[in-house]
Amino acid sequence: MRILIEGYHYKADDVKGILTGLDFLENVHHEVVVNYVGYLYNPHIHDCVFILPKVMVDKHGMAFSHLDPSKIIHVEKAEGLTDDERRFIYEFAVWIYRALFVFNRYNTDNDIVYHKQMVKVGSRHKHLTNTYLEVLLALIDFNKKNRNFFMTILKNLHSGMNKINWTRTIARCQAIVQDNRPIYLDLVNKKRQINFDEELLVIFFSILKHINEKYGFPVTINIGFELITGAKFEHYLNGYGQVRLRQIKYKYFSDKALYLWELCFAFFDKARNISVASELQEYLIAKNFNIVFESIIDELVGDKKSELPDGLKEQEDGKRVDHLYSYKGLTTTGTEDKSIYYIGDSKYYHLKNNLSDESVYKQYTYARNVIQWNMNIFLNPDEKNEKWRNRTLQYRDEVTEGYNIVPNFFISARMDEGLSYADRIYKTDKEKQMFMQRHFENRLFDRDTLLVYHYDVNFLYVVSLYAQDNGSAKRQWKDKVRKMFREEIQKMLEASFSFYAMTAHPGVDAKAYIEKNFQSVLGKMYKPYQNPDYFSLALDNGDKYKTENAELLAELRRHFYVEEIKVGVDPEAKLTNAIEAGKAHEAEYRNEEWLTEYHVERYMDETFVVGMYHDKAHWDWINGKNAKGSLMYNVRLSKDREGTQRIGKINQMRPKFAILYENGHEFENKYHVFRINGYPEMTEEEMKASLYPRKPKGNYLVFCLDEEIKIGNYDINRLISIKRIDTKEKFIEGTPIYVKGKELIEVKIKR
Asked: Which element (helix H / strand E) includes 451?
């Protein structure tokens, strides 16, 4: 067996004999490049040649990561090839042959596959082979051409069966005499003996069943034997098949039975030379294997052309989308039947190559065309578009004027590192896994923000799945991979953007607010949820937008309940909890008007500590439900903990007021203010004794609080954001901050 690899530059002298009579040309550098994939039998060298896909070669130009392709042309003589690698080549060649066969069957009018099978001329035309594929084809061919041979064996096996053995019946059974005639109720039939002809047929047809189920070769089995399957057949594959065939070989004398025995033994041996019928020249090869790969991926991932609307796959500007299918949107929740279109492009290239700018730009163009098609079917209500309007989500939202995210991806071929046929799809190991084109920054829900993601698929798996041509298996994988693509794209989106769910506060007209603040929310908001009162908000995670996003969130939270959430997750529970928490806060602050009012303007140079409490249990402890029965607020002093405070600095600042807010609710600008009348230290044991509701660790400084007061309305969330940006050290969320009255005045909310 000889192997060549598509696209590899071989020296002309290395392949001269192998390609004799096949009209390949060498370039000026005395190199030959074979741009085909497939199988052929070359009578000039009396051997078969497999041309394997270029994905066999890694980015360093090596086969199996360690071998020069020019050194393994003759598989049996190649040094450095392990037994496992040889076995892989033999089996991989079968899958490539089957994939080309299936492609040619379903694309009969294609002009890239060349198939020639000569009529066999007797048994004289044979050649010696140990090629696994040729053994499989010989087994299938034997089944087709020897039906009479099988019928003759079966006839001989069953001759005389079910005849009554009268001698044994009379000797063993008691007769009933009726009308002077004996009647025997328990007849003894002739017993069958073990027949080795039958056992060989059982093994043969068990092999045929196996290669049909594993490789998809069409075979006909009309024999009613109980075949060897499952774990028992695996036992035969693991060595017992050879053992058993050796044990029964001496039983066969006819040429056909012996040839059948040799075929079966060669199947289990996979390294045994055997003579099989040869052709003058036989081949099944494809040029432009990228078209075959595209067809494989489209069959396994995409919708059929008949299932797609006109002008979507074959676009009106002359462009053709490789893969297109309708599926649940990235931001969609619930069980809504309407879907959006996923756009895919398959890339079959050398692993060392990167995607071209042209390929990426084409994907952007495909997405723009799909968006425009979607707009057209909703802007032009006619009978032609009615069917698609009922099936498809409207990409553009009328309230926010945001656009749905169009899923767009590349799939490229990659060999599994362990030469495994496992079902695997990976994020590409190329430098760029995601491409983005946009007109405006920090706007995900914009028609001009286009994203393309890049994935690698295990080439061995998709080729084998396609080659098996099993409709049920293909449908199962299609459902699985579509779900997986959706989830993987969502994960990559969440790595670049933060997503929030929003609903308006009572008394706030969401539509009116969006219209009034259109420029600040355009491209950031969208309505993907079934609940018409819910909105999605997406903000870029980049440090460049940190301040801008913090200010926008603070502004939105004055009018909306805003909860961070994963993309595509139903926000009902989170927003319902936020609404209930909002009601509880309203009740908590209902009696604020009875508090004494202090004017910050009188305390411009005094220090205010702004701190958070964790939850209701912590607030109750602060508010007097402690062992001392007094108001107090604690900060950390232990040096080994994040957020620790320096007691010397606190003593120097001598804070006069404490402003306390609940963790996670600072954006609501609801807080409690207390006068401070001292700040003693407390040990870990003293904190435990005080019934502190959280697990104390180390020493604490405790601010002793006087009565609660009110100071007016201040944007505490903005104040924290300013400190987060201005601090020279790493800012730790929830850490107390210290500000002067004149700094606090800067964030006063003017009514």
From this structure: strand 450-458
Q: In angstroms, how far is the first alpha carbon of the chain from the final one? A: 87
314: β partners: 320
- Mean pLDDT (the chain, rounded): 84
Lowest model confidence (mean pLDDT) among 271-275, 343-347, 525-529, 630-634: 271-275
Looking at per-residue confidence, does 111 or 337 come out higher?
111
397 closest CA partner among 522, 293, 481? 522
Q: Does residue 716 contact residue 737 with C-beta atoms inside 8 Å? A: no
d(CA 402, CA 45): 66
Angle subtended at Cα 749 by Cα 747 and Cα 751, rounded to the nearest 5 degrees: 160
Domain spanning 594-745: CATH 3.10.590: yes
Residues 81, 25 contacting (CB under 8 angstroms): no
Q: Give 339's DSSP letter.
A: B
Burial group, residue 638, by CB count within 10 angstroms (0-12, 13-18, 19+): middle
**pLDDT exceeds 50 at position 124:** no
Are the CB atoms for 360 and 435 separated by under 8 Å?
yes
CB 702, CB 682: distance < 8 Å: yes
Give the 3-state secondary structure of 307-329. Answer: HCCCCCCECCCCCECCEEEEECC
Vertex 212, ends 142 and 50: CA angle to 5°?
Answer: 75
Average pLDDT over every residue of 680-684: 89
pTM of this prediction?
0.71
Query: Max alpha carbon distance in the chain (Å)?
Result: 135
Question: Are the C-beta atoms of residues 581 and 563 closer than 8 Å to each other?
Answer: no
Question: Residues of the chain with pLDDT > 90: what percent?
Answer: 34
Exposure of 576 in the CB half-sphere (CA atoms within 13 A): 5
Helices 459-468 & 196-215 angle (0-180, nearest 10)? 120
Q: Where are the domains of the chain?
A: 2-118+280-287, 126-277, 290-464+471-588, 594-745
What whole-number distance in Å separates Cα of residue 302 and Cα of residue 716? 52
User: If you average pLDDT over residues 635-654, what whole number do you get?
Assistant: 81
The pLDDT value recorded for residue 208 is 93
